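Appendix B. One record, verbatim.
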Amino acid sequence: MEHPLPTDGSTSAAASPNTRWEEQVVGERWTFYTDRFDQMTADGTDLEGEARFVDALLQRNSAVLDAGCGTGRIAAGLQRMGHRAIGVDKDAGLIEIAMNRYPGVPFLACDLLLLDSERSASVGGPATFDLIALPGNVMVYLAPGSEPRVLSTLAGLLRPAGRIVAGFATDREYSADAFCSDAEAAGLVVEHHFATWQLGPVSPDSDWAVIVLRGPGQPDDDADDRTKWTSAANWPGDEQ
């Protein structure tokens, strides 16, 4: 599938103040980042731990946003697992790599502060989401001070009782406590807090945080009737 690089429609990439990513990951560091994942893929390294975590929280065919998707591996993994995924990143260079690497997945170069239903739908993505993933240090690479607005913007794209899942290092300027406070201010509830993508318990020495947030509302109980089981007495068969 060949198509032009989709962007948010703005004439400037600086729709918001520069992110920490834009300030810190430039030149050789940017190339190192992209080459590193190429090498890990070639080496057969397992790169789908985050996608498996997210998948376990979802019904089949759920709508998922990989926010700050980088080169697209998590959005692609979730698509392979049977979900309708879209990847969004402000870094147009990373989006170009993602599009070339995973041509069957919709990607969009867009500032997360500007993301809305129309922009997602413009590249074939869902308008609202069952889950929004922010793995891979996305939160700690946002523009300083923009974190509450990003969470509020993303919360507005959730379906009733939808989730946001974030994973990031705990030794950065933006802390897990600040994240939880900003999430609560955005109307989200902290549902789970782990130290690893494998559900490791949190301790004072934890160097990583995986936090699951839940949005307001009630989920659609009829989303997948196949997961509901009735008593064996109600199964079809001969009368006893």
